[in-house]
Amino acid sequence: MMLNMQERLKLQHFLTIKKLENDQVKGLIERAEYFKAGGAVAEYSQPIYAVNMFFENSTRTHCSFEMAERKLGIQTIPFDPATSSVNKGETLYDTLLSLNSIGVNLAVIRHSKNEYYNDLINLNNTQKLNMGIINAGDGSGQHPSQCLLDMMTIHEQFGHFKGLKVAIIGDLTNSRVARSDMRLLQQLGAEIYFSGPEYWYSSEFEEFGKYGKVDELIDQMDVVILLRVQHERHQKEVSFSPTAYHSEYGLTIERYARMKERAIIMHPGPINRGVELASDLVEAPKSRFSMQMKNGVFMRMAMIEAVINGRGLGGEK
Ligand code: CP
Q: Where would one find coiled-coil regions in this protein (predicted)?
């Protein structure tokens, strides 16, 4: 049943999946599926201005948010951290205050600092910042839009979450995708397993799922989420061998052949071909890599819309 305007999610900011209830997640998936099916966007009588501020590299999330904004009829103001006054020492708060003062209503932000957004939302009574913040990834903390597009992609395949066996494999320590997905998948009733090098698995993950070897798990799983090896976040690279990683922990052609008939593979991207998975599997029948990216646009539309509605922007007709 389609939610009406009054029932739709309304948020001041979209920072984490931690406070979302299952019905709210399902509402977002339903809204994203509506947009994907060609459903009309709201008509806004007043302009809405957004800025995308990516202080860490991005292709998918950045371009996908921009596409989502354009599809919603939002005006996007260009911002390049490399040429901005951040390089003169301006703080993130003061940068946003400037953008807000010139009329920007929404900021999509990716930042290397975990929970960077606390300084932007917990204001004292002299601070006047009045912008909706949408978290596009904070350090090793959360990646809410990736998580929700992952949920949409799983839901599209299975129609439910309860009892699904999901393996999250790889660089768990550094992964905001793992930290977001494991939490929401558990809440939605999936059974979670972790794999990859044991030194990337720690007690932090124990409450969400069990560790197992890839070869023991692969033929049992409904969903296999492969994580990128994030070399740029490793303090010291102790002789990493892509071939050895692929052979021990990666999705090889042989392991793919052992997967359940309806099982799917997901990867947040960017992919290290021949490391997390064999290059020929990137576009294999079980791969949902392209579908994740496609779904991301529609899920981000639903997320932005929740903040537009929460802040009463646009004066919807
Ligand atoms: N999945 C993801 O966050 O990709 P980008 O770093 O390219 O945005």
A: none
